[in-house]
Predict the structure of FMN reductase.
Amino acid sequence: MTTRTLAVVSGGLSNPSSTRLLGDRLTAATVASLKARGEDTTVEVVELRSHARDLADNLVTGFANQALRTAVDTVTGADGLIAVTPIFSASYSGLFKTFFDVLEKDALVGTPVLLGATAGTARHSLALEHAVRPLFTYLRAVTVPTAVFAATEDWAGAGGVDRALAGRIDRAAGELADLVSGRPASARPVDPFADPTTSFEDLLRGH
């Protein structure tokens, strides 16, 4: 079996968080879909609430500390990404946007991404299409066709989730699994400075 890496970015601010709950549901469904395709999965979750101060420091200094750098490397090095944000004022949260603002501009090029969002009412559902999807289009990621929105009432069904929401989760997870399983490992971004063939001293001498 091939082992794929899946990064999950959760922008929820509370603990427990409905945003993290949706991310967990999407992750479980994607792992199951990949397993059905003969792929094992390693999952790494990035809780943005843990990096709020790190992100603010990065914005004003231009440098990420070790904790934030680890989170960034987790996301940019993954075979696939699940990105889930709460919706505030009809758009993604500021914390969610800030994380993707500090990434290198080409860091997510070609990366398969499943988009999710949560809010108190279904009135916010279109924010996924008019705000969140354009962000990842700008980053040149490959977003799956089905984005998953969950309002408060969607968690009231059997097993803690509405049947319609469960169907959207399974459909989106299958779409992400199709993209991830069809993506060669070489498609992941390569850091041109990770294994330099010329020493720093030679570069200074102009060699």
